Amino acid sequence: MELTNYFRNKTLYMLWLLITFMLCSSQMMAAQNNQEGQYINLDKVKYRITYLSKMVPDTTNTPYNYWEGETRLDIGNKTTHFYDRIKQLKDSIMAKQDNTGIFDGKKLPKVVFSWELYTNYPSDGETSFLDKLSSNLYLCIEKVEVPNWEIIPDSSASIIGYKCQLAKAFFKGRLWYAWYTEDIPLNEGPWKLYGLPGLVLRAYDQRKQYIFDAIGVTTLNGSTNITFDQKKREKITQKELREVKNKFNAVETFHAIERKTGITLKGGLPEGAIKALNRRLKGNPIELE
Asked: CA-based Rg of the chain, rounded to a whole angstrom?
C-alpha cells in the first residue's frame, strides 16, 4: 500500500517524510554506537527461495490494505536466514550515507518487514529473531518450535511449476495454511513455517493478514555467505516485544528523537499523524502468542 493512501492526504504524507528523516537520523546516530558493520559469517547459502510477501499493517482498516515486498529464505548447510531483501538494501544505503555524512531520505526504499529470523543460531536448535522499534534494536533467542502440521488429503496445486500439497497448523496465535512440494525435499519455509516433507512455496494465515508466495528458487552452491550483524541489541522475549510495541507512544518517541537529532517540529504532531505513526510502528505482529 502506498503511504499517500495510508495518510490520505499530501500534508500528512509530507509530515511522514519528515518523521522518517528524523527516525533515520536517530537510527544513524544509534548505529555509530552499536558496532555497525561487525558482520560474522555463519554459513554458505546453498539455496535461495524468493517470496512475494504481503502483510496487513493495520487490521482495523477494512477491507485490508496490504504492504507488499520481496523476502528471501537463504538455506545453508546448517543455518537459515529469512529476511526482507529491501531491508538489507536500506541498511547498506544508510551505512554509506552515514560514512559520507550526507543524508537523503528520498533514496531510502520502503521496508515491509522490519524483522528477520535465523535458525540454528546462536546454537543448534535455537532461533534468533531480530526486530526494531524506532531506533531500539531487539533480539529474541528461542528454542526451535515446529508447527504441528495436519496434511490435507486430496489437496493439489501447481506453484511455479511444482506440484504441491496443502497442510495446516495452529501456530503462534494464527491458523496457518502451507502449500509444500516434495519435489524439493527441503523441510524449510518462510518465517517459522518449516517441518513439512518438502519446501513451502505458499503460506498464509486464515485471515490472510500475512501471505508468502514463492516466485523463485535458486541454487547458489555456497557462492554467498549467510551473515549476522553483531549490533548491540536488547535481549527480550516475544511476549515482552509485543508488550513494548503495544505500549509504544508516538508523542514520547517523537520528543526523544527531537532531543537526539536537534530537529524540532513547530506545533508538534497533528493527531492524525500520531495515530498513523502508532499504527506504522506498532504494526501487526506475525506472532500473536
From this structure: 20
The SS3 call for residue 17 is helix
The residues near 166 (Cβ < 8 Å, ≥ 6 apart) are 151, 152, 155, 157, 177, 178, 179
Helical residues (DSSP H) of the chain, grouped into ranges: 3-7, 10-32, 85-100, 238-246, 250-261, 271-282
Q: Quick one: which of 192, 201, 195 has its CA closest to 174?
A: 192
This prediction's pTM: 0.81
**Type of residue found at 18:** L
Cβ(278)–Cβ(251) under 8 Å? no
Give the pLDDT confidence of 229-287 residue by residue, as tens digits. 888 999 999 999 998 888 876 666 666 666 666 666 556 666 666 666 666 666 789 99
Q: What percent of the chain has pLDDT over 70?
A: 67
Residue owning grid cell 526486530: 131
Listing DSSP states for 149-185 in one string gives -EE-TT--EEETTEEEEEEEEEETTEEEEEEEETTS-
